[in-house]
TrEMBL record:
<dbReference type="GO" id="GO:0042450">
    <property type="term" value="P:L-arginine biosynthetic process via ornithine"/>
</dbReference>
<dbReference type="Pfam" id="PF14698">
    <property type="entry name" value="ASL_C2"/>
</dbReference>
<feature type="domain" description="Argininosuccinate lyase C-terminal">
    <location>
        <begin position="365"/>
        <end position="432"/>
    </location>
</feature>
<dbReference type="InterPro" id="IPR009049">
    <property type="entry name" value="Argininosuccinate_lyase"/>
</dbReference>
<dbReference type="InterPro" id="IPR022761">
    <property type="entry name" value="Fumarate_lyase_N"/>
</dbReference>
<keyword id="KW-0963">Cytoplasm</keyword>
<dbReference type="Pfam" id="PF00206">
    <property type="entry name" value="Lyase_1"/>
</dbReference>
<dbReference type="InterPro" id="IPR029419">
    <property type="entry name" value="Arg_succ_lyase_C"/>
</dbReference>
<feature type="domain" description="Fumarate lyase N-terminal">
    <location>
        <begin position="8"/>
        <end position="302"/>
    </location>
</feature>
<dbReference type="GO" id="GO:0004056">
    <property type="term" value="F:argininosuccinate lyase activity"/>
</dbReference>
<protein>
    <recommendedName>
        <fullName>Argininosuccinate lyase</fullName>
        <ecNumber>4.3.2.1</ecNumber>
    </recommendedName>
</protein>
<dbReference type="InterPro" id="IPR024083">
    <property type="entry name" value="Fumarase/histidase_N"/>
</dbReference>
<keyword id="KW-0055">Arginine biosynthesis</keyword>
<dbReference type="GO" id="GO:0005829">
    <property type="term" value="C:cytosol"/>
</dbReference>
<keyword id="KW-0028">Amino-acid biosynthesis</keyword>
<dbReference type="InterPro" id="IPR008948">
    <property type="entry name" value="L-Aspartase-like"/>
</dbReference>
<dbReference type="InterPro" id="IPR000362">
    <property type="entry name" value="Fumarate_lyase_fam"/>
</dbReference>
């Protein structure tokens, strides 16, 4: 089958420059496992419906399995003349199976065929991302469990604000990546819809069984409207949106790792295996892994923007513009996978410099709020307590002291409510322990949060059928 699928309508051959321009095989060839699987299911359904004979079914299925082996081994030949993975497989099928191959495309179009392939491919990618997100959460939660005694400054506006457990800070990222996991599973639900049988846009006249194909391919439902089936790319935009939000979280973590590993912070040390040096400055150890993740975030944002822009003005149903959906989708999925893998591998090997963290938490008047709370609990209205604590901070600054370095007499000059117990109230240990409201940084809270997170993650990692449960 050397000609085009549409040669009957045309009197001239497609120009070579047009073949090169319109070819997508250089990127959509990765869809081949799904194209083969979808074709086998379609073929089986056609045979069951009596559209093709048993002998034709056997010839086609045998041919598809031979092509699968060729693709898997790398011996399959690609050329721009055949445009995409669908035409490559169909053309080769005619070579190995003969005339029965001409019947495989009965009751389907490349429009619903590519929609099927993308959904099948993306379902696999979503589940892979979900598993990595769980592994990343588990990695971070274990770090939190192992460093419950580390205290560092919490920041607002990148200014030291209040002391928190390092574990509490880590668990904030577990929350972020937990939401990313939930988003991925939500996207999975809307990707798990079988479009094959919509044909070009209007359905088909053949007595096909779409539900049977969905069952063979592991889809939980069949698409309702044939026009929407071939033109819908909401699920790809949803995936890119979820990926972009996840990359935002990875980028925020990257920024903190970059800051914390600098000499100015010196809270962590990065493993050599995930760092690089300078071509001119021998002393440098650069946080390149974190910087690259931060940089690649913009790349995923760009993929989302590209697809939103692509789809925003397309009339129903399929348009060739939609061929342009795959490269940004594939690139974003690959990028997300690589970034998650880097963090899963890198984080457990970071050096946590607890002494440096604690020293930083004892400077910068991080106990000023606790001083105001102390006065309020002694009976002073909080707004007056806040003002009093502010004046005491100003006095301490003028003396180049921290609040807890002032003596009792100096403190009592601001309020007679202050007594010797003030020093215990302003200690790091007390400040951390007293923040016991649900979700706060008190050790018992954080320890319980770690336990809950690890139990939840372990439960989700249990083997389940992804199409019929929450396990991954």
């Amino acid at each position: 089958m050397s000609g085009k699928l549409w040669d009957g309508r045309f009197s001239e051959k497609t120009g070579e420059i047009m073949e090169d321009f319109s070819a997508s095989i250089h990127f959509d060839q990765r869809l081949w496992p799904h194209d083969i699987k979808g074709s086998l299911a379609h073929c089986r359904m056609l045979a069951d419906a009596g559209v093709i004979s048993k002998e034709e079914f056997e010839a086609i299925s045998k041919g598809l399995k031979k092509i699968e082996k060729e693709l898997r081994s790398g011996s399959f030949k690609f050329e721009n003349r055949l445009e995409d993975i669908h035409m490559h497989i169909e053309s080769r099928l005619f070579e190995v199976a003969g005339k029965p191959a001409l019947k495989l495309h009965t009751a389907r179009s490349r429009n619903d065929q590519v929609a099927l392939d993308i959904r099948m491919w993306l379902k696999d990618e979503i589940m892979g991302a979900a598993r990595r997100l769980l592994r990343l959460q588990k990695t971070i939660a274990r770090m939190a469990r192992d460093h419950m005694d580390a205290i560092l400054p919490g920041y607002t506006h990148l200014q030291r604000a209040q002391p928190v457990l390092f574990s509490h800070h880590l668990m904030a990222y577990v929350e972020m990546f937990s939401r990313d996991f939930d988003r991925m599973m939500d996207v999975y639900k809307r990707t798990d819809v079988m479009p094959l049988g919509a044909a070009a846009l209007a359905g088909t006249t053949y007595p096909i069984d779409r539900a049977a194909v969905a069952d063979m391919l592991g889809f939980s439902k069949v698409s309702e409207n044939s026009m929407d089936s071939v033109s819908d790319r909401d699920f790809t935009m949803e995936f890119l949106s979820a990926a972009a939000i996840c990359m935002t979280h990875l980028s925020r973590m990257s920024e903190e790792i970059i800051l914390w590993s600098s000499a100015e912070f010196d809270f962590i040390g990065l493993p050599d295996a995930f760092s690089t040096g300078s071509s001119i400055m021998p002393q440098k150890k650069n946080p390149d892994a974190a910087e690259l993740v931060r940089g690649k975030t913009g790349r995923v944002f760009g993929s989302l923007t590209a697809l939103l822009t692509l789809m925003k003005s397309l009339p129903l149903a399929y348009n060739r513009d939609m061929q342009e959906d795959k490269e940004p989708l594939f690139d974003a999925a690959d990028t997300l996978k690589a970034c998650l893998n880097i963090y899963i591998r890198m984080l457990p090997h970071m050096e946590i410099k607890k002494d440096h963290m604690r020293a930083a938490a004892q400077k910068g008047f991080l106990n000023a709020t606790d001083l105001a709370d102390y006065l309020a609990q002694k009976g002073m209205p909080f707004r007056k307590a806040h003002d009093c604590a502010g004046r005491m901070v100003a006095k301490a600054i003028s003396q180049k002291k921290e609040l807890h370095e002032m003596n009792l007499e100096e403190m009592r000059a601001f309020s007679p409510l202050i007594s010797p117990d003030i020093f215990e109230a302003l200690s790091l240990k007390t400040m951390i322990k007293r923040r016991s409201s649900y979700g706060g940084t008190a050790p018992e809270n954080v320890s319980a949060a770690v336990d809950r997170a690890l139990a939840r993650i372990e439960g989700l990692l249990e083997p389940h059928d992804p199409g019929h449960g929450n396990g991954v």
